[in-house]
Design a protein that fits this description.
By secondary structure, the protein is α/β, with parallel strands linked by helices. Helix 6 runs parallel beside helix 7, helix 8 packs parallel to helix 9 and helix 15 runs antiparallel to helix 16. It has a single domain, classed as Alpha-Beta Barrel (TIM Barrel), CATH 3.20.20.140.
């Protein structure tokens, strides 16, 4: 008999989070405390009002969605704040049974107050190490280049990524405004990372069409695609991604917020799943999208009719798509399978 899908059951489901931005996932309470400490003005004085303000409800496109990040970044310019925010994000993820998370951000945006780039990485790593000790959650960092910055900046961030290979950083990404900022301009940065046998993922096909995904794959050699919402516009490219088993990091809620799709019901997730593509479900930004990993799974069930077995399949695809050494990944997948099996009701 098919298992009934409930929020409580999805909460208990062990999950992987492969696409979550550090600077998009702060607790409002923490923002206010840090703002008071650093003399930064916030747009609201109490946590709930601030939470509501940071929840993007009126963006007409990706660029407007990204405007709120200036607020979070204003309190992310010290080592202590970065360590705390990383720790709290891992704590929040662990609280909803996320077993593994890859947390991404662009360190160049955290050095505006003079913090050395190395410390912008060391500080979050310290927070994530404490979270592992306290909550058992496995985490890693993905460093992001920014599309609308100079390619030279991306190359610097790629060098930083390589410097932290096997020290907590697992991949390089390209984020930010997509339209009119092609990935191919940053291909040298990706060569730097790939040449050192490290992984790459790129935001693509969110605010621009399938051509953006094509560049991410064929100019920058991406191992995964972030969002990929408009992949279906190029059926031949979609077959290519399916044939070569290139995973897509799906972020349902933020895709609706940025108008990448008209509604949850019209999101191509169901089409991609039925075509056999490799997928994961992710939050993108827990604060700006007012969501959790559990909520993303629930919305897939609620709006796109995903069954329990299909959602279990997606969670396993998420773990299998992790930028983790194969032996570690296989061990984690076995643990997750046993945990999922334990969720089934006992036979009478």
């Amino acid at each position: 008999m098919a298992m009934e899908v409930t929020r409580e059951l999805l909460h208990r489901l062990p999950k992987a989070e492969l696409h979550v931005h550090l600077d998009g996932s702060l607790r409002p309470e923490t923002m206010l405390e840090l703002a008071a400490e650093y003399g930064v003005k916030m747009p609201a004085a109490d946590p709930e009002t601030l939470r509501d303000y940071m929840h993007v409800k009126d963006a007409r496109n990706l660029v407007e969605y990204l405007d709120r990040f200036a607020i979070t970044l204003s309190v992310m310019q010290t080592a202590d704040s970065l360590e705390r925010i990383a720790y709290e994000l891992a704590e929040d993820l662990a609280a909803e049974n996320v077993r593994y998370a890859e947390i991404r951000y662009s360190p160049i945006l955290n050095s505006q107050g003079g913090l050395p780039l190395t410390e912008t990485v060391d500080a979050p790593l310290r927070g994530l190490a404490r979270a592992k000790a306290d909550f058992g959650i496995e985490t890693a960092i993905i460093i992001c280049g920014i599309r609308n910055m100079e390619p030279a900046t991306s190359r610097d961030l790629a060098d930083l990524t390589v410097a932290y290979k096997d020290r907590g950083v697992v991949a390089f990404d390209l984020a930010g405004a997509e339209y009119n900022y092609p990935a191919k301009k940053h291909k040298d940065a990706f060569y730097t990372v790939i040449n050192k046998n490290m992984a790459a993922t790129i935001h693509a096909g969110e605010a621009y069409g399938a051509e953006s995904i094509h560049q991410a794959l064929h100019y920058c050699q991406a191992n995964r695609i972030g969002h990929g919402t408009r992949l279906f516009e190029d059926p031949d490219l979609m077959r290519y991604m399916n044939d070569f088993r290139i995973p897509i990091e799906i972020c349902l809620t933020s895709n609706v917020q940025t108008r990448a799709v008209e509604s949850f019901e019209k999101h191509p997730l169901r089409m991609y799943y039925d075509e056999g593509l490799i997928l994961s479900l992710n939050t993108d930004n827990r604060l700006m999208s007012a969501t959790t990993v559990t909520e993303e799974y629930w919305r897939a069930h609620q709006y796109l009719d995903f069954t329990w077995d299909e959602l279990v399949n997606i969670t396993m695809m998420g773990f299998d798509s992790a930028f983790m050494h194969r032996t570690q990944k296989l061990e984690m997948c076995e643990r997750v399978k046993r945990e999922i099996e334990s969720l089934k009701p006992a036979k009478a």
